[in-house]
Design a protein that fits this description.
single chain, 214 residues, alpha+beta, 2 domains, three-stranded antiparallel beta sheet, 3 strands, globular
Length: 214
């Protein structure tokens, strides 16, 4: 769900203080069956969240859950600071890729430089950063039409996945996400804008949008 918090930790504090109005965001109709007033809140579940910037932090985060009364199915509200099926925050993922781009500009190859630049307790590996690169590129490509309405994307190179760094770097530059600025609020604002418009995550795919196995 979109929200105005810059970090997942601010979200957690407001959640525990009961300052978040989930019902207003969901609306009167049940997302499962479409009937009015057919869902109700139930006990939230907890999952770990990991941030890397400005420093490594790992804590459990409460996730709001609801149940459809007629179909007895549950749904949850994952905040846009997180990525579906990923413990690391959006800020952690983009920050690691920005580190990787800086390393490549210094002539390094691969993902090792970025992985050793973060706290070793975070357990970030070159393989994990490679996975993030692919996920972020797919997210940007999926949101390209939406982003084009707000940003100049004309200079972004269209590449194969083997040259994903160049394309992701083009997106990050066009969106104003560079190491030289305080890019956290810009990134969160972008995630919120896309999530509020499409009811989808900018990066990653929620369970309700995943294709069932063949």
């Amino acid at each position: 769900m979109p929200n105005t918090f810059e970090t997942i930790w601010e979200y957690k504090e407001s959640f525990l203080s009961r300052k978040i109005d989930f019902l207003s965001f969901i609306g009167p109709s049940c997302p499962i069956c479409g009937k009015p007033s057919c869902y109700r809140p139930i006990t939230p579940y907890w999952r770990y969240a990991i941030d890397l910037f400005p420093e490594f932090k790992k804590e459990r985060i409460p996730i709001a859950r609801f149940v459809c009364r007629s179909r007895h199915k549950t749904f949850s509200m994952l905040p846009t600071q997180l990525i579906p099926y990923c413990q690391y925050t959006v800020k952690a993922v983009i920050g690691a890729l920005l580190l990787g781009l800086q390393c490549r500009q210094r002539g390094q190859k691969g993902f090792h430089g970025a992985s050793v630049a973060v706290d070793p307790e975070s357990r970030v590996t070159p393989w994990l950063i490679a996975c993030w690169l692919s996920a972020v590129l797919l997210g940007f490509r999926r949101a390209h039409g939406f982003l084009r309405g707000f940003y100049n994307l004309a200079e972004i190179p269209i590449t194969s996945m083997t040259a994903a760094w160049q394309e992701v770097a083009g997106y990050l530059t066009a969106l104003g996400l560079t190491p030289q600025i305080r890019w956290g609020p810009v990134l969160q604002g972008l995630a919120n804008r896309y999530g509020g418009s499409h009811r989808r995550f900018l990066f990653g795919t929620a369970s309700q949008h995943r294709r069932p196995p063949a």
